[in-house]
Amino acid sequence: MKIAVLPGDGIGTEIVAEAVKVLKALDLQFEMEEAPVGGAAYDAAGHPLPEATLNLAKQADAILFGAVGDWKYDKLDRPLRPEQAILGLRKHLGLFANFRPAICYEQLTHASSLKPELVAGLDILIIRELTGDIYFGQPRGRRVATDGHFPGAEEAFDTMRYSRPEIERIARVAFEAARKRHKRVTSVDKANVLETFQLWKDVVTEVHKDYPDIELDHMYVDNAAMQLVKEPKRFDVVVTGNMFGDILSDEASMLTGSIGMLPSASLNDKKQGLYEPSHGSAPDIAGKGVANPLATILSAAMMLRFSLNQPEAADRIEAAVKKVLAQGLRTPDIYSESTTKVGTREMGEAVVKALG
Ligand code: NAD
Asked: 194-215 burial, b for 16+ CB within 10 Å, e for fewer?
């Protein structure tokens, strides 16, 4: 088993170092190899995703990724910006299924902007299709309008499209994931208005016939956005397209109130995956030793479960994280009165100790 370790920029290096410590403490047989990505790679090799980094990622069974980006790269041409590294990895590895769990830990219910009783025990998995939809559909561009409300005016256009196989494969991922959870899938669409999402709904309904043990319901995206803040615990697995998933997964992550806690995974059809925290490189706190490493440590747990076939080791990490929270240890982002404030390194070391 080989893990490509790509720490990236900002707090990426600090939080990935802690996740690597936790992985090493498990005493499993895997090889880890590190390479620069994002702004760090641009500085070292003139490109956010150098050939050598991409090759390492392709050969690995899984990629542990920190975060990329810093305001200082904002003036670069778009293809050279750090964020392009993630898009490049998704494209080259065919990472079409994005898993974003939104879990509200018992000890952190106060951190949510919703009432504690609405989020206590929250455990939702949002599965977002990552390689299709309006973000990648062609044609797209700018032109002079020849029809519509303002002929002759400048206009811009994008194309929303999904093919049957693209919908089928993400639907299967969702039903399979639900089998390991509470066996409920909510498919989110806008079939009342969009042809693309009528096909989405039809195909998800057809694929569901192969999963009679799973309960399926369909929900329009506007209602889903509303239900996520009204009654979030009604959801188990939510599956949706790229754009709706982008928005809903961020909304769901905020229900937990603590961006530093949320892992994510992006998988291809060979179960090769990229595992990263849901947050960015946080340049405002980089180098201060205060970043919360738990999202990255929990991403490493997802990596063990989904790509490296080590579910027991994943359970051990998740239990250790719960244990350090129960001990009252908190990085500043999740700190509250009567808990103990710790830095990035102390938090990582506490998780190692709690592995038992
Ligand atoms: P961000 O997620 O980096 O930070 C948002 C806020 O959350 C900041 O106040 C930050 O201090 C805090 N925060 C984030 N992670 C934290 C952690 N682990 N512990 C404690 N606090 C944490 O988002 P941003 O500030 O909008 O973006 C900063 C840079 O990150 C930009 O260059 C952006 O493009 C990039 N970005 C990268 C990714 C990625 O690598 N996948 C994702 C989002 C943003």
From this structure: bebbebbbebbeebbeebeebe
Q: Which of 279, 334, 345 to mutate to test the pocket of ligand 1 (most atoms within 8 A of CB)?
A: 279
Pocket of ligand 1 contains residue 265 by CB under 6 Å: no
Task: Tell whether 246 is in a known binding site.
Answer: yes
Fold of 1-97+262-356: Isopropylmalate Dehydrogenase (3.40.718)
Residues in the chain: 356
> How many helices (H) and strands (E) in the chain?
12, 14
The predicted pLDDT at position 257 comes to 75
3-state secondary structure at position 351: helix
Fold assignment, 113-133+161-256: Rossmann fold (3.40.50)
Nearest-atom index, ligand 1, CA of 71: 32
Give me the percent of the chain exceeding a pLDDT of 70: 100
Atom 32 of ligand 1: nearest residue by CA position: 69
> What is the value of pTM for the model shown?
0.91
